[in-house]
Sequence to fold (155 residues):
Amino acid sequence: MPLMHGKSKRAFEHNVEAEIHAGKPQKQAVAIAYSEQREARRKHMSSGGCMGLGCKHPSHYSEGGEVGEKEHDEEMKLKSEERNRMHKDFMDEHERIMSLPMPKMAEGGEVNEMEDGEEHEMMDMLADELMQAIERKDKKEILESIKAIVLSCRE
Fold:
């Protein structure tokens, strides 16, 4: 009888029976069934591999490969540079928005002040738009959302 590949109790029991039926001693049959179960669990883990040279438990990862310290450091440096670039873009856009002239109101008109509930609702909406833009990693939308928030705070 062929072995059943899987991590379930049913697969384990089937494999023990199959090995005993094939003439193996019970202890060996159980060891083989455990080995099959371990292999099935390992294959269900996410792909990847050990990171760094001091990996203590490489069996906890499925196939993939190792990432050396040099590659890891280079990747972290690139991520840091990208964060710095995004921060600089944000600060440049913030400065540009703050330097814009304030719009002038028409003479003799009345301005209705927003009530607290309306103001909070508008800020929630603007914050939601900003979060969605961040999730999409859309830099242009992020800057537009920030611009809307800054302008609404100036009023």
About this structure: The first helix runs from residue 9 to 21. The CA atoms of residues 97 and 147 lie 7 Å apart. The chain has a mean pLDDT of 76.
